[in-house]
Amino acid sequence: MEKPYLQKFSEIDGITVWIVDGYYIRQNIDINFNNFGQHYRFNFIPKNEFWLDRQDKPGEENYFIAHLLAEHKLMAEGKDYNDALDEGDKIEQELRGQNKRIRDLKERLKTDRASVLKDVRLKLLKEYTNEIVKTCVVDSFLVRSLFYIDWVAGGHDKVYPAFVPPNEVWLDNDIVKEEMKYVLLHELHERYWMSKGWEYNKAHASALEIEAYCYQNPTELESKIQEELARQV
C-alpha cells in the first residue's frame, strides 16, 4: 500500500474503510483533514472509501463510520455539507449516548462538574505551562461524547469557554505523538490572537498558516512554540 493508506479496517455498504496517516495528509495534501473523511467533503478520497485517521488511542471508529455513512449518503444526494454534518453529528451523538460510562458522567456533570473535568484531563504538560496558561492532554473520547461532538486535535478557553476552563489549552490524546507539538503551536497562536480581539475564523486561519509553515520547516517548531507560550495573555 502507498501513503496515506495504513490498514484496511472494514467494508460496509460497498464502501471500504481505511485507517490512514492523517499526519501525512495534513503535511502533503490538505491541512484541514481531521479525524475522518469521505469523498464529498474531501475530493481526494475515492467515492467508495471512508478514511479514518490513525489514533494513538483507538476505539471510536464505529462512531465515526456511522457519522460518515449519513454524511456520505446525504451529500451524494446533493445536500449541503453543513446539513450532512448536522445529521452525522446527530447519529453519532445518539450512539455515544448508549455508552454507560457516558450516561453516568453526564449525570455527574449536573452536580459535580469539577470531578468530571478531572477525569477528562489526563496529563499536565509542565514544559508547556507557565503562569498564564496550562497545557493539558485530555481524553478526547470524553470531550467529544460529553461536550462537543466535532472536537478534534485541540482547543482552548477562548474558543470553547463553555467547557475548557479559563487559561487552559487542551490537546487531544488521540493525536499521534509526532504531531502533538504542531497542534500545540496552532492552539497557542490562535489563543493569543483571540485574546487580542480577533474573531475565531481570522485567528484560526493565521494558526493554520504557522502550522503549515512548521510542517515544512520542522526544525523551527520548538522555538515557535516557545515564542507563542511567552506571549500568552
Could you please describe the fold and organization of this structure?
The chain has 233 residues and is of the alpha/beta class. The protein has 2 domains: 5-96, no CATH class; 113-230, no CATH class. It is built from 9 helices and 8 strands. The protein has helices spanning 22-28, 61-76, 81-96, 100-111, 113-120, 140-146, 177-195, 200-216, 221-230; strands spanning 5-12, 15-20, 36-38, 49-53, 121-124, 134-138, 154-156, 168-172. Strands 1-2-4-3 form a 4-stranded mixed beta sheet, sandwiched between helices. Strands 5-6-8-7 form a 4-stranded mixed beta sheet. A hairpin with a 2-residue loop joins strand 1 (5-12) and strand 2. Helix 4 crosses helix 5, helix 7 packs antiparallel against helix 8 (200-216) and helix 7 (177-195) runs parallel beside helix 9. The longest helix is centred in the C-terminal third of the chain and has 19 residues, at 177-195.
Write the layout of secondary structure elements.
Elements: E1 5-12, E2 15-20, H1 22-28, E3 36-38, E4 49-53, H2 61-76, H3 81-96, H4 100-111, H5 113-120, E5 121-124, E6 134-138, H6 140-146, E7 154-156, E8 168-172, H7 177-195, H8 200-216, H9 221-230
Parallel strand pairs: 2-4, 6-8
Antiparallel strand pairs: 1-2, 3-4, 5-6, 7-8
Helix pairs in contact: 2-3, 4-5, 7-8, 7-9
Note poorly predicted spans.
Answer: none
Mean pLDDT value: 95
Give the neighbour order of strands across the main sheet. Answer: 1-2-4-3
Summarize the helix and strand pattern as letters.
EEHEEHHHHEEHEEHHH
- Shape estimate: globular
Query: Which structural class do the helices and strands define?
Result: alpha/beta
- List how many beta strands DSSP finds: 8
The main sheet comes to:
4 strands, mixed
Our measurement of the CA-to-CA distance between the termini, rounded to an integer number of angstroms, reads 46 Å
Helix content: 40-55%
**Structural domain count:** 2
Number of helices: 9
Radius of gyration: 18 Å
